[in-house]
Amino acid sequence: MKRQIPLLITLIVGVVLIVSVFFPPIETLGEDFSLYFDIIAVFAFFLGGGNLIRVHGDKIFKRRPDWGFSIVTIAGFGLMLIAGLFKLFNPGGITADVAAPGSMFQIMYDWIFNPLGATMYALLAFYVASASYRAFRAKNRDATILLVASFVILLGRTPLGVYATSWIPDSLSLLRIPEMAIWIMTSPNLAGQRAIMIGIALGVVSMSLRLILGVERTHLGSDNE
Amino acid sequence: MSNLGLIISLIVIGAGLLWLLILSLKGREVERRVIFLFVGLAVSIPLLFNITFSEKATPIVMNVFNKIDSLPPGSKVLLSYDYGPSMAPEVDPMSNAFIRHCLTKGHKLYIMALWATGQSLAATAIDSIIKTEFPEKRNGVDYINIGYKAGGTGVLNVIITDIRKMYLTDVSGVNLDSVPIFHGIKSLRDMDLLISIGGGYPGVKEWVLFAGAPGDIPTAGGCAAVSAPLLYPYYPRQMLGLLGGIKGAAEYESELMRRYPRFKASPTPGIKMMGPQTLAHLIIIAFIVIGNISFFISRRKRG
User: How far is it, in rounded angstroms, from Cα A213 to Cα B249?
Assistant: First the structure.
C-alpha cells in the first residue's frame, strides 16, 4: 500500500499533465495540478529548514569538526526566520511586504546576506585563473582548438578585442575578434548545445515514462521492490 | 586619471607577468597564491583608478533595446528577478537598466520573482531606482511588485493562463483587482514583453520554455556570463535577445546613455566593471600562455 498509492498518484498526475497538453477540454485540470504542485513545493521549505537544523544540530551535539560554524549557521537561520516571519521593525507592520525598506529582514539581507553571497561568487575569478593556468594545456589537437577558442572568447568579451582588430576591413569582418567570438557562440557552441539539449530531452521523456509506468521507483526510496 | 591608471596597472601587471614568464622558462611552477595576487591586482587597480572603456552594443543586446524602445508608451513589460545575491553584482546592472529604460518610455512595469531571494533584490531596485529617479511614477499605476511564489516552472504553468490563480495580491497585500495597473490583465498573454534576469534554475530558459514559446509572447533575457552559452539555442526565434554577463550590461548601459542623455549622470556599474573584467581576462590569457610554456618545457625535459 505504501508503494502502490504513490505509484498511482504518479500515474494519474503524469497522464493528466500529458493529456492536458493535447486535449483542450481538460486543459484546466493540468493547470490545477500545477497549482497543487506549487502548494506542495511550499512544504519543501519546511523540510529544508528542518533538515538544516537536524544536520547542524547533530554536528553541534556530537562536537564534530568545525561545529562552531554550525552554531553560526543555525543562529543566522533562526534570526532571519524570526525577522521575516514576524516582520520585525517592518515600517508597514505585519501586513506590509517582508522586504519593505527599513525592515529588519531587508537590512539583514542587504548588509549581511547580499555581500556574503556576492563575495562567494567573486572568489570564482581567482579559482578560474588558477585552474586555467594548470588545466588549459595544448596537449593535443582538440585541446589546442579549445585553447584558441577560449582566447577568442576571452578577448571577444572585452573592448580590447575591438581595439586590436578594428583595422581589419569590413569584407573580412569575420576575422575581427568580437565577430569570431560571436561566430563561436552561434555556430560550434550552438550545435553542441542543441545536441546536448536533444539528448537531455530524450532522457527526460524516457525517465518520465518510466516514472509514470512505475518502472522507475528510486524516488520511493528503493529501486527493486 | 583613467589613462594614467590604465598605464600604471598595465606596467605593474606586465612586469609581474614577465617575471613569471622568466620563472616558467627556467622550468619553475607558479604558486597558486601568486596567481591569486595577480587576479586581485587586476580587478582592484581598475576600480581604484576608475578605468572604463567605450562599449558598442552587439545585435543580440540591441534587439532587446530596440524592442523596449519600439513598444508604444503604456505597453506592459514583465520583469522577473530570478537570481540571488551571489549573481547580483553581475546581473543587477541589467535589471536597473531595464527599469530605467521601461519607465522612461512610459511602459507599465510588472515585477515578480521565481527565486525567493529575488523579491528582496526587486524591493531594493524599486527603492533605489524607481523611487529616487522616477518619483512621479506611482506604485500600482506605473509599476507593481507582485513578489515571489514558490513552485518554479509550476508558477509559469499557471500564470500563463491565469495570473490570479497564483497571485491574488501584490507584496504589500493589496488586492490585484483593486490596482489600476492590473485592470484588464488576466494572464501572461496580456504582456507585451517578458524579461527574465537570472542565470540558474528556474531562469531565462524556463521563461522561454514555459511562457514565451507556448504563449507566443516576446521574451528577452539577461543572465550571468557562465549561463549565456546555454541560452544561444533559443536566439533569435524563441528569445528575441540576451544580455550575457557584465559585458551585456555594459553594452545596454552605453546604448541607454547614448540615446537618452538624462542617464549620463546615472550610475553605470556595468561599464565600470568592464575595466576589472578586461584586465582579469588579460591576466587569465597570460597565465594560460605561461602555463603552456612551462608545460612544453617540462615535456621536453622528460624527453
Answer: 46
Mind telling me how many Å the CA of A127 is from chain B's nearest CA? 8
Point out the residue among B87, B150, B295 whose CB comes nearest to the CB of A121. Answer: B87
Length of chain B: 303
What is the H or E stretch that residue B222 is in? strand B219-223
CB contact under 8 A, A157 and B281: yes
ipTM reported for the complex, 2 dp: 0.82
For residue A10, give Cα distances in angstroms to A44, A204, B29: 18, 15, 56
CA atoms within 13 A of residue B115's CA, in its CB half-sphere:
26
- Cα gap B68→B77, rounded to integer Å: 9
* pLDDT tens, position by position, B267-281: 999 999 998 888 888
Distance from CA of B276 to the nearest CA of A (A): 10
Residues 6+ away with beta carbon under 8 Å from B294: B24, B27, B28, B29, B30
Which candidate from B87, B166, B278 shows the least CB-CB separation from A38?
B166
Phi-psi region of B173 (alpha: psi -120 to 50; beta: other; left: phi over 0): left
Q: Which amino acid is at A112?
A: I
- pTM beyond 0.95, yes or no: no
Calpha distance A164→A153 (Å, rounded): 14
